[in-house]
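Regression test case RT-17, inverse folding.

Input:
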């Protein structure tokens, strides 16, 4: 009778590292401002930090050989991607 070998990864397994309990945060709507706020398990508002904005764009570039008076050779096309991100703290 042939025995199937154990999968190779099982020999590398070990117990999970010790963990700590993370505080519970809940998003709620502020009844006065109608804006979402985050509160902790004690009902205190938690500041989550700023969130920046970013923009991205794709700029196509095309080159055509010849002087334009007649059919030319091959056309080459490429594009350049730009990415800008605000620095917020």
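Golden output:
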């Amino acid at each position: 009778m042939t025995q199937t070998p154990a999968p190779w990864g099982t020999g590398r397994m070990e117990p999970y590292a010790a963990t700590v309990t993370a505080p519970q945060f809940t998003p709620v709507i502020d009844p006065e401002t109608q804006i979402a706020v985050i509160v902790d398990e004690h009902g205190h508002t938690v500041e989550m930090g700023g969130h920046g904005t970013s923009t991205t764009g794709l700029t196509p570039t095309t080159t055509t050989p010849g002087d334009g008076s007649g059919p030319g050779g091959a056309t080459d096309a490429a594009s350049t991607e730009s990415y800008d991100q605000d620095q917020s703290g």
